Amino acid sequence: MNIVTPASNRPTKAAAASTSADRHPTREQAEAAIRVLLRWAGDDPDREGLRDTPSRVARAYQEYFVGYAEDPVALLERTFEETDGYDEIVLLRDIRLESTCEHHMAPIIGRVHVAYLPHRRVVGISKLARVVDAYSKRLQIQEKLTAQIANTIQDVLMPRGVAVVIEAAHQCMTTRGVHKPGVTMVTSRMLGAFRDNAATRRELLAMIGNRGSNILTE
Description:
Number of helices: 9
Largest sheet: 5 strands, mixed
Distance between the termini: 62 Å
Strand content: 15-25%
Mean pLDDT: 89
Order of helices and strands: HHHHEEEEHEHEHEHH
Strand order of the largest sheet: 5-2-3-6-7
């Protein structure tokens, strides 16, 4: 027998949102979970050196994952049109990358190069760095992070081209598993002129310093 809930008894969208918010763990619950992990690792969370660790880790997680509270699209919405016709490459090179691997929750440390070819408007360069942070300060894989940054810049600014190159070391590979320190992973996302025009792509790589992978020039 099918039971139909009367419309008057169905939860409203506001109520559903409230219920979802209520399910979000509290700070106390997060700290309790960290205490469990400390015990599972084989240590005593009540000893002096670890007594304040759950609180410290919870605060650290708020910093590591602050990107979930950021809107990358909103960061790019304020642009400037007084460029005197500037239409060459704008490149922000060597942006510090600090992210977290979603598979092992281990650090991903590296640098990001972001470039675009303006189409009548430009954006403040600090906004590009903040977009990188907004996506990197989440649980991530490098391939997805590269695409997210490039796609967002393309969708909001609508330039003639966007390029994002990321070079990073993954601690899930260097400090565990295969234990291969010194390995750097390189990913790229080329859109518009950077994908379609080999000369434009070569110019970009020369500006970066040819530190990217050879696959970027193919």
